[in-house]
Batch of 2 targets.
Target 1
Amino acid sequence: MAQDQIKSVQGTEDLFPDQWAHWRTLYATARRLFERYGYGEIRTPVFEDTRLFVKGTGETTDIVRKQMYSIPAGEGESITLCPEGTPSVVRAYLQANLHKQEPFQKFYYIGPMFRRERPQRGRLRQFHQLGVEAVGSGSPLLDAETIVLAVEVFRQVGLTDFGVVLNSIGCPECRPRYRDEVCRLLSDKRDELCEDCKDRLQRNVLRVLDCKEEGCRRLVAELPAVVEYLCDACAEHYEAVKAALGRAGVEFTEDPGLVRGLDYYVRTVYEIKHGGLGARDAICGGGRYDGLMELLGGPPLPCLGFAIGAEATILAMESELGSPADSAVGPAVYVVCFDEAARADAFELVQALRCAEVRADMDFEGRSAKSQMRMANKRGVRFCFLLGPDELQRREVTIKDMADGRQWSVPRDGAVQEVGRLLGAEEAEGAP
Ligand code: HAM
């Protein structure tokens, strides 16, 4: 590659036509299931007013402190490439005054997100999330519903080596008591904390529970569990979520150390982790965020949701299901010209095939007929249309069946119909 060639930005990925198979499966499965569970698609902009994330995602989060791509937008304003979808959905809901019409709404979104993280396997600076947000209900059944839904997506794309990790982090009533206790216990061992966690001790001590450093993890293991500090209402909610999951047949493990890296969560938090991913093993993260709507200037409506990480899920699919075979969708019919004079007619035929909903293509590089046949083979074409001088003169097309090599001639006017009938019959029989 020439030295001055411009390359992609670190932490971003290109995806070529032969790499889409798992992506297609994931997107189609998620869409189908999200809609089956009553979630409707919402699209919000790729960038938002920076204040939305500072306020919504939270000032003490790593995302806001270190990872946002923010751009000055004139007159002291700033816009930010969305690092997550949750605040945008709440903002859109409020802006459209949906709470005044039908407060309970369920949304889903699929799109790119941006975080300035240290790129590593499955961690990118532009990545993609498939998320759901349910607005306007505090029912614990809804917590369970979202978990069941995420699990169902993973099952239906063919994954088995994953597990749900669950915790409750309480509410603004009961959490301060726990936070004070953690702060007291960790302050005694301040010297043993990593530099980031020394800072977290001041800003938001519960972030320490999420630290991946060995020394901090040792200290965290000795802390009391947050569930021991839950108020009655939070404890009851948590029990109801677990009971509903049991009834739905979804297994889970409880992890008192799971606090999640975002400020808005209350009560239920969860992650779905996959065995094939190493240290950054979450393929989905979610939870309740009952205070966010009010924080963003709306009514006090309870909400919850999750986001599936697409790249992480694709890695999980590759580790369990292998890399898919070439997933490029090739033409079903290739029109081969044996004569330069045939090219204009070939162009017309290709167009007629496409109008008849047949995937069709021809050569645009001036290749020899032999090389065109080779190309047709390489692209897994089912039938070739051969156009030579004889065919041109007789206004015929020779159809070649690439599976068994048989070939026969038909009048040009009937060729599209004939191949359409053959392909249709194969599809009906479920043949490749
Ligand atoms: P999150 O845990 O930050 O939650 O992200 C959800 C998932 O997105 C992660 O489990 C991971 O698979 C994927 N992900 C996050 N960052 C990256 C990255 N840099 N590269 C690749 N994948 C990544 C949220 O974003 C919340 N908004 C989820 C939510 C929705 N909570 C309530 N509603």
Target 2
Amino acid sequence: MDADALISCGAMTLQFVAEYWRSIEKRPVVANIQPGYLRQLLPLEAPEQAESFTSIIKDLESTIMPGVTHWHSPNFYAYFPTANSYPAICADILSGGIACIGFSWIASPACTELEAIVMDWLAKAMGLPEFFLSSGNGGGIIQGTASEATLVALLAARSRIFKERKVEDPTLTLGRLLDQLVVYCSDQAHSSVDKAALIVGCRLRKIASDADCIMRGEQVQAAIAEDRAEGLIPFFIIATLGTTPTCAFDDLVSVGRVCEKEHLWMHIDAAYAGNAFICPEYRHLLNGIEYAESFDFNPHKWMLVNFDCSAMYLKDRTHFVDAFNVDPLYLKHAFQSSAPDYRHWQIPLGRRFRSLKLWFVFRAMGLDGLRAYIRKHIELAKYFISLIKPDERFEIVFPAAEQLGLVCFRLKDSPNELNERLLKALNEDKRIYLVPSMVKQKYILRLAICSWLTEEKHVRFAWDIISEVTAKLLSK
Ligand code: PLP
């Protein structure tokens, strides 16, 4: 590689990104193209001869950008946020530039050590229990996604129960055990739980949440009793803090107590809401975490760290090392017992230097800056509530114990079909972007504050559009 070329091409790339950020507000938030548009713009075969970097960068605007949905536009209110910031972008460049693979301590010691340190920083900033720190039996690891974390936790829990049951019955096979294993989650849990259960091959039982979309211990206990009576083996539950449809918080204390009594592994998925726990005023939502075996949330959603960075904490890492330990000679090294080898805590072998992103963001923003960012989004959601609440046409639905940055609403006393038409009209209007959800047979609209560029004037703009499009729809 020619270092001078890297400097000039790098400058062109950064210039492009900077201009993108400057112009993002003016771009249509959702791509206005049809499936297959790119095939018509690009050649059918890879080029035989090298092309200039300038021509590649030039083609970005005419070919790629028309097909981009601008997740960081201040007019993007869909899903949950995806995070981004200049220190994280720079750290990602460094991760690509240094390009080491940190699957074991020896493979790149700084990669492992920085990850353990920043994951401890993060745990302390959130007030997580000490058993999640690397100084004890547990520790933190950066997984790619919350979905991966759920799958990894489920696999480790399966391995633990298999080991325990095999002591009682040495002839037991995993296949036979799998037939009996039951995983639980709320009917509001993310679809990644369904996927993890599918992959692992366990039956999944969904617990009916209450009217506020909260899963409670009493219902979990009743389901476990029924399943045990059927000869099944309950062994794993996912509790959610901040559900995707409405940002509801499962009752960790009552669910956790049941898990302790019934010997179930509790994994907590706090993909979005977990980020708020760096603010002391939201920490009470973590009450009951002491019952958890594993906990995960996504700094890549709401802590200014670019995708992918999912922070997973384990109470006892030996369950993971036992479940995922394969140890060929070429991966062995002399320091295996004195430092974590993250390859045993995850599914792939290879891993990028993702901790750089957390380190840069912590240092460039400070915990105070990160708290201010989270609080600002929550204030913007409250501002939206202050605009929509006095309007008789709407109702706010399923308000969570802590609203955070998500507001769910619908047309008051109206059929689902009318709300579906409202969402369609809003997204066809194309000035803002929202996604719906179906909760307790109600079609609802979700407005999530997503971009770090979003200010009060954008929320006001979104509200004006919602109001205008609604007036048009209702007048028909
Ligand atoms: N869990 C919850 C509660 C979510 O809201 C989401 C995504 O929004 C996920 C899991 C999936 O996250 P990831 O894309 O990191 O797998």
